[in-house]
Amino acid sequence: MEAEAAKLIGAGLASIALVGAGIGIGTIFGNYLQGALRNPSAAPTQFANLLLGFALAEATGLFGLVVALIILFVF
């Protein structure tokens, strides 16, 4: 296998983390919305947890994207 082909395959595999981030973000917001509709008085107290979960899920996707870009443009 040529080096260029291996780089493209590696970058594609590293970008799979973006799928996980999308699923995680959808799950986080969906569960928050479901909980807020069931108990509206508790929704403001859980908003900080929502933002923390969003940030952690998004960071996972961004790390995968950075690894993919490093594979493509550095090596």
What's this model, at a glance?
It contains three helices and no strands. With 75 residues, it is mainly α.
Q: What key phrases describe this protein's structure?
A:
75 residues, mainly alpha, F1FO ATP Synthase, 3 helices
* Cα-to-Cα separation, first versus last residue: 16 Å
**Could you give the count of β-strands?**
0
Mean pLDDT: 90
Could you state the CATH homologous superfamily? F1F0 ATP synthase subunit C
Percent range of helical residues: over 70%
CATH fold annotation? F1FO ATP Synthase
Question: How would you spell out the order of helices and strands?
Answer: HHH
CATH class: Mainly Alpha
Q: What's the number of structural domains?
A: 1
CATH architecture: Up-down Bundle
The biggest beta sheet reads: none
Structural category is: mainly alpha
- The radius of gyration over CA amounts to 17 Å
> What general form does the structure show?
elongated
Query: Uncertain runs with pLDDT below 50, 5 residues or more?
Result: none
- If helices are DSSP runs of H or I spanning 4 or more residues, what is the number of helices? 3
Amount of beta strand: under 5%
What this model shows, in words?
- The chain has a single domain (3-73), classed as F1F0 ATP synthase subunit C (F1FO ATP Synthase), CATH 1.20.20.
- Helix content is 87%, strand content 0%.
- The protein contains 3 helices and no strands.
- The longest helix is centred in the last third of the chain and has 31 residues, at 43-73.
- The protein is elongated, with a radius of gyration of 17 Å.
- The model has no long low-confidence stretch (mean pLDDT 90).
